[in-house]
Amino acid sequence: MVEANLKYQTKKGIHWTFLNQFINYGLQFIVGIIMARILTPGDYGITALPAVFLAIADVFIDGGFGGALVRKQEVSQKDLSTAFYYAISVGVFFYIVIFFAAPLIADFFDTPVLVPLVRVTSLTFLWGPLMTPQNVILKRNLDFKTITRISVTTKILGSAIGLALAFLGYGLWSLVAMNVISNLLELIQKWIKVRWLPTERWSKESFRYLWGYGNKMMLSGLLDNVYKSITPIFVGKYFSPADLGIYNRALGYANLPSQQGTNIIQQVTFPVLSKIQDNNELLARNYRRMLKVSAFVIFPVMLMLSALARPLVLLLISDKWESCIILLQILCFSSMWYPIHAINLNLLQVKGRSDLFLKLEIYKKVISLIILCCSLPFGLIYFCIAGLFNSMISLFINTYYTGKLINVSYFDQLKDLFPIWLLSFITWGAIHICNYFVGMIIQSLLVNLILGVIVGICVYIGLAYLFKMPQLQDVKYMLNIRK
Predict the structure, then answer these.
(1) What is the DSSP string of 439-463?
(2) Residue-wise pLDDT tens digits, 192-227
(3) Average per-residue pLDDT in the chain?
(4) Residue 14 forms part of a structural domain
(5) Would you say residue 5 has pLDDT above 80?
(6) Residue 131 in domain
(7) Stretch 392-420: mean pLDDT, rounded?
(8) Residue 169: left (phi > 0), alpha (psi -120 to 50), or beta?
(9) pLDDT for position 355
(10) Which residues of 272-302 are buried (b: 16+ CB within 10 A; e: fewer)?
């Protein structure tokens, strides 16, 4: 009965979260195509330069308190109020720091426009923390319907403003305005929907619990964000803003299906699995199913994207972005493993082992930094190839404690995922063969793209039916909105 109820709650949450992600990132994809035709790679590169400083501040503002509150069995008003006061204080502190540090950031990159750009972008530090309790309340109540409505409305309005400014010739400022205004609109809607105000004073007891769990998650997030943001710094400094824009565009397309698909699952399953965190047998069973269903959906999508990168890029954002094609093709092979990494780490959060989470992040980031320093001097193509090897090393590290905690080892997971990977790889090869022979007859990017998608879907689904893969039934259940 408990497992059936969890399955239903997961399904319902996934429906709303999927709708949220589908609309939001569908809009992001479309808006990105339009803006990429209006703006230049340099515009995108400049807006990406200060990402490391903003990402670090975001990690400190959250402090890991959100996750701590979601997984806690009982949350009091003191807990919510303490998290609220903490987030506001840290947000104001970091806005002041970054405001005065903006000239130094601009000098480092030798880009004067970064002074006003950084100061405007970091305005979200002032009102973003005001949403902390509202986010916790909505997630604990599994109210993904409200989250979806707010997110979609925000994305539509923010995108409309960004596009209008781009057409009016505001260049990179259209990207800045779109993000800042969207964040403010989200705050307004959540305060209207969740009418919560702090009713308690700062509590040392609440802070002790929140900090005890959250500080390790904060440090883990800090390591992750610093490493992710180091790449733009190195690329922007070692090469040029245009090269950085091309790399970020390829990385953005590669991450879009993998990370967003994983986010759908993580946002729903974290609060759901937290309810059974003490039942290892039930947790392990649901965890393995989650891994296989995630891979069954994400793996083929990523390899289809790799196979169709050329017609997709040239048709959607023109040949001025042709340099990002080869990068996108390579990055898809490493990004496809993102859901497996994330779900393994998610288990540590569910079990409350933020100490182990931090330990793994330290090991991985040291290895990743070594790979970054060794590969980047050889160029972006070799750097992306090295990223694939880094991904596989990280997978081995991430699965270590999963085997210890719920007895689902690295080799158990590879055994579960190998049939799905093999079907996806066959699909990738079938698309390449199709495009090769069609290209000999018809020189059309659109035809290659359409036929590639059709062949990929037919081959993958056909083989899955032929070999009677159980993930088909799980996906059917999740897609059935009536039951």
Answers:
(1) HHH---HHHHHHHHHHHHHHHHHHH
(2) 888 888 888 888 888 888 887 777 777 777 777 777
(3) 80
(4) no
(5) no
(6) yes
(7) 84
(8) left
(9) 77
(10) bbbbbbeeeebbbebbbbbbbbbbbbbbbbb
Please name which of 479, 54, 471 lies closest in space to residue 290, comparing C-alpha atoms.
Answer: 471
Sign of the Cα pseudo-torsion (272, 274, 279, 284, in order): positive
Q: At what angle do helices 172-193 and 132-140 cross, to 10 degrees?
A: 60
Structure tokens at 33: 């195509």
Q: What is the pLDDT of residue 267?
A: 65
Structurally, the chain folds into a number of domains equal to 2
Q: Are residues 159 and 306 in the same domain?
A: no
> Is 3 a domain residue?
no
Q: What is the pLDDT of residues 100-123, one digit of tens each?
A: 988 988 887 777 888 888 888 888
Residue 430 CB contacts under 8 Å (≥ 6 apart), including other chains = 455, 456, 459
177-181: which pairs have CB atoms within 8 A and are 24 or more residues apart? 178/31, 179/121, 179/124, 180/120, 180/121, 180/123, 180/124, 181/157
182/1: higher pLDDT: 182
What is the share, in percent, of the chain residues with pLDDT greater than 90?
Answer: 9
The token duo for 177 is: 């305005």
Q: What is the pLDDT of residues 310-355, one digit of tens each?
A: 888 888 777 778 888 899 999 999 888 888 888 887 777 777 777 7
Do 126 and 87 touch, CB atoms closer than 8 A? no
Cβ-based neighbours of 327, under 8 Å, separated by 6 or more: 246, 247, 250, 251, 380, 381, 384
Range of the domain at 161: 39-218
Q: What pLDDT is stored for residue 15 in this prediction?
A: 62
The structure tokens listed for 365 are 């980031």
The conformation of residue 469, written as its DSSP 8-state character, comes to -
Structure tokens, 448:
């290659």
What is the identity of the amino acid at 223?
L
Residues 22-34 have a mean pLDDT of 73
pLDDT at residue 18, rounded to an integer: 66
pLDDT of 437 over the 80 cut: yes
B/e letters for 410-435, b = 16+ CB within 10 Å, e = fewer, are bebbeebbebbbebbeebbebbeebb
Cα separation, 338 vs 440, whole angstroms: 36
Pair (292, 400) in one structural domain? yes
CA–CA distance, 462 with 460 (Å, rounded to integer): 5
Q: Residues 158, 164, 169, 170: what is their CA dihedral angle, to the nearest 10 degrees?
A: -20
Same domain, 342 and 479: yes
Q: Are 14 and 264 in contact (CB under 8 A)?
A: yes
Report residue 463 as tokens: 């083989």
- Please count the other Cβ atoms lying within 10 Å of the Cβ belonging to residue 481: 8
